[in-house]
Amino acid sequence: MTYRAGWIHFTNVAPILDSLDLPPGVSAITGVPTQMNAALLAGEVDIANISAVEFIRHADILEALPDFSVSVLGPVYSVNLFHTRPLADLRRIALTAQSAMSVALLEVLLRERGLSPVLERAEGEAEELLQQGYDGVLRIGDSALREWYRVVGPLTNERTMTTLPDSGRGITVTDLAEDWFRLTGHPFVFAVWAYRKNRPPPPELVQAMRVARREGIGHLADVAGRHAAKLGLPERVVQHYLWNFRYHLEAPDRLGLKEFAAKAVPGHAPLCFGQRPGEG
Ligand SMILES: C=C(O[C@@H]1C=C(C(=O)O)C=C[C@H]1O)C(=O)O
């Protein structure tokens, strides 16, 4: 029987997925986070890099690979709240239906501040939605990275990725991962590679993913170059964006995940991970 994978195809997983050779007997489909979350829970795929919050919510039936994640410590650049008033004054925020993780994170960050604006689903470009009466717009992924750069860019010799302003064109951009870091001092884990406890991936697939990740991280400038052209962004931006991710679910990432789980899904079942390479 074929083992079916479901990959979220955002640029941030390119260093793992671009060089991945699927072993015989494994097939893959791609989609946005909420599609892959649903596909895994419906049993339409056997493994997927899903929104970490869905892994937490379904910790009773799911397990995650022990050494794969999409995490950051500090800014992520692609999970952004675009807003036209200070956070404390926001009344109506447009959410994207593509994302489970960023919505859960935004809810935690608003609750921590004692804020409760109206949250509604609405798709489209942040700048357009801000003109249509929303005072905040949450966007993720490649389009959020592009819109962030359009608002706060361009890079110059004096202005690097870490010193760009947080506003431009009358819009402030709050990077939710950076906000999480300010609040907790922890990394933020956006995605883990999860599967049903009774349907773990064949070891050849996990090994192929490790080889592909080594290849991708070892040739990050090439990966960035390919995707920069596709995204219409400078290579410098994409290379820094990719370099900034933590792909190995290390101890600090697990702490961040645990902290988020306690805040976002109180009473969740214990989180289960497979054995790390060399363990057991
Ligand atoms: C950081 C990102 O991570 C992704 C965001 C997700 C979500 O918001 O549900 C899910 C998986 C991640 O790979 C991003 O795409 O901007």
From TrEMBL:
Keywords: Lyase, Menaquinone biosynthesis. It catalyses: chorismate = 3-[(1-carboxyvinyl)-oxy]benzoate + H2O. Pathway: Quinol/quinone metabolism; menaquinone biosynthesis. The lineage of its organism: Bacteria, Thermotogati, Deinococcota, Deinococci, Deinococcales. The keyword Nucleotidyltransferase does not apply. GO terms for biological process: menaquinone biosynthetic process. This is Chorismate dehydratase. Catalyzes the dehydration of chorismate into 3-[(1-carboxyvinyl)oxy]benzoate, a step in the biosynthesis of menaquinone (MK, vitamin K2). One of its GO terms (molecular function) is hydro-lyase activity. HAMAP family: MqnA. It is an enzyme of class 4 (lyase). InterPro entries: Menaquinone_biosynth, MqnA. The keyword Lyase applies. Its EC number is 4.2.1.151. Belongs to the MqnA/MqnD family. MqnA subfamily. It comes from the Bacteria. Gene3D superfamilies: Periplasmic binding protein-like II (3.40.190.10). Pfam families: VitK2_biosynth (PF02621). SUPFAM superfamilies: Periplasmic binding protein-like II.
